[in-house]
Write a structure and sequence with these properties.
There is one protein chain. The two termini are 18 Å apart. The protein has 5 helices and 19 strands. The strands form 6 sheets. It has a 6-stranded mixed beta sheet with strand order 4-1-5-9-14-18, covered by helices on one side. A 4-stranded mixed beta sheet has the order 8-7-6-10, with no helix packed on it. The chain has a 3-stranded antiparallel beta sheet with strand order 11-17-19, with helices on both faces. By secondary structure, the chain is of the alpha/beta class. Strand 2 (12-13) and strand 3 form a beta hairpin. Helix 1 (20-33) runs parallel beside helix 4 and helix 4 (179-194) packs across helix 5 (204-218).
């Protein structure tokens, strides 16, 4: 299976500097390449710091060809335009619609947005999903790439979007990274610590639900993360063992 990940992290745009996005980039890259993250190869992960509109468009057009699964993250400033009620994200030289980050030719996609969504005028057994005949050892370690790829292929084609905040809310930025992304990765790492089985995965919906609780319990914020409500039976993985 061909994978491609893109992390867009904007530390300095018109709405002001942010410290969290740089940490988000580092944390997400490290996580994806780990065993629990699915053993992504470094060459499969693209990071863009403060890109221009044309750089984003060129990356989506050129890099997401013949890709079976895409994992795209945006960390930075954003808003909902009152005129069309759509999400927009700030990059170096302007704003892009969220739809620009949805490659039309990729059948299976995950999109995570850690940005404000204010209006602007212009970890237990129930988390484990098991399946057989996927366990493989490489140099004495489980090859979680196989587990990850198989879990992706089990899920129906489509797009899952995770938002760090509900409509008309800001998104907390911290020195550890965006509070939502930090919560999401913390849940995945906690899941790795408590799960004792192999050939299992944590899906996006369960991870998101638990990340919402983690965010509420550990950060002084009223933001309420949300996700698009797809009619799907199986969600893409975000952590594997």
């Amino acid at each position: 299976m061909n994978r491609k990940a893109l992390i867009i992290y904007c530390t300095k745009t018109d709405s002001g500097p942010l410290t969290g996005p740089k940490m988000d980039n580092n944390n997400i890259r490290e996580y994806l390449k780990s065993d629990v993250g699915g053993q992504w190869y470094d060459k499969e992960i693209i990071s863009l710091e403060n890109p221009t509109i044309s750089q984003v468009r060129r990356c989506i057009t050129n890099e997401f060809v013949n890709v079976d699964y895409s994992f795209i993250v945006f960390s930075g400033h954003g808003y909902i335009d009152e005129s069309d009620n759509k999400d927009y994200l700030e990059v170096a030289n302007g704003d892009i619609p969220l739809s620009m980050l949805i490659p039309s030719v990729v059948p299976r996609q995950t999109l995570i947005i850690d940005a404000c969504r204010g209006y602007y005028s212009l970890i237990n057994d129930s988390l484990q999903k098991s399946f057989s005949n996927l366990y493989e050892y490489f140099s004495g370690h489980p090859n979680t790439r196989i587990v990850f790829d198989s879990a992706v292929c089990q899920a129906e084609e489509g797009l899952t979007i995770l938002y760090s905040a509900s409509e008309n809310q800001s998104s907390l930025d911290t020195d550890k990274g965006g509070a939502y992304i930090y919560s999401l990765l913390s849940i995945c790492k906690k899941w790795e610590e408590v799960v004792k089985k192999r050939n299992v995965y944590l899906d996006l919906k369960d991870a998101h639900d638990y990340a919402c609780k983690y965010l509420k319990d550990n950060f002084n914020t009223i933001q309420r993360p949300t996700m698009n409500m797809e009619k799907r039976r199986t969600y893409f993985p975000i952590a594997v063992m």
